[in-house]
Request: fold
Amino acid sequence: MAFLKNVYHALSNTRDMKEPEVYKAFQEKSPVITELTRLKESGDPAIDQKKVEDHLKLFTIGHAGEKSVFFELQNAMLPMVILHDVYIQYKGYEAQLDFVIITHKFILVLEVKKMFGNIHVTEKGDFQRVITNKNRIVNKEGIYSPVNQVERHVGILQNLLTDEGIIKRFPVKYAVTFANSKTILTMAKKAPKKIQQCVIRHDQIKPFIKRELEQDSPSFLLDKEVYRIADAVLKFSAEKPFNREPYQRKGSPAPTDLPEENEVLSEEKTHLKTALLAFRHERATEVNTNPALIIPDDVLHQLVKKKPVTIKELAAVQGIDFEQVEQFGADITGIIQTAVDTRLSPPSTDEAIQEDPVHKASRDQTRDQRIDTLRNALMSFRTTRAKELNAKAYYIFTNKTMEAILLKAPKTMEELLEVEGIGPKKAEEFGQEILAIVRESRGS
Reply:
């Protein structure tokens, strides 16, 4: 009956929807929890059981939080379509959306957090977890801003739906809810307005959505258009594959007996560290936060040491958490891949025969400096154009695309169009400026 009801709504020019309808339901048995439980019960000595147990606890707590939020949404008695646990991949980016809620006036991406302790938001918009004991603060620590995380998710979803022609001017909003009933949420009086408006407790979800529905909107969709968006989100939603690799025990790295190779790696690491620091600084500037909150120094050291070029390898790096992989994975691996590729690119046969070590070192250093200069110029251009257009930096081009530009160094519009992430529209809008920057970096 529910299926026939949805078909009827989809074909009708009406707004008959009066209550929540579930398009993708909450799963009592989470696939991730199932896989982690399987690892825990396997007794496999090659598995880091401590890490498995820690993550199993975290995912179980998070799953319980999402269940309580799902209950609130189901019983909100508001016209909306609910999709839980939506995982999408688009143009090299991926996003795990806890809830996607579609109404006649807007789409809402709802991020759920369930954590121990109280939450305080400072005047600068930094999030702090505060642990108390008998009304006395015993620990206070900064946590990564869930608002930054959900903003990125919104950007990916909005780009997907816009590029696919599903929406044009339809608003995509976001909110963050803390699902622990014992968590006290406090904010500084001068905390950023956008955070005050979008960070809520789970028992405030219904009033929040109701207030948003009462606001004016550039669109007021029919039921069939709401279902069309829901169908599109469902179409692009996939089951996120479980990755066992982060739970494998790591052996000691094999020592090398080649001092010449160590010397080359040292140069490569210096170049890679510079690129990662530039990326970290840019992302921190975009979200107005401390660079160490984007990639901590100890994690950056591990990235330079391990040089992961796939998401699986990145997830296995000590100190990298799931949120960092989700938010920055494609960017980080793209930067590292570029550094590795440029280092491995061999000279021509004649150069290889004639070039002595001194000239080779000089050539490599010059190439690395040129790449760093070009990267900084592209970042500066992207930041400037994003501000002019009042858009996110990744709208101009993503970090993955930027690394591809560094690798290919296109000279013509035809070569630029071969770069992943540069289509006719991007080429028309930004192509000549990008080519000019590349030419200038070559000194031509």
Notes: The longest strand covers residues 80-90.
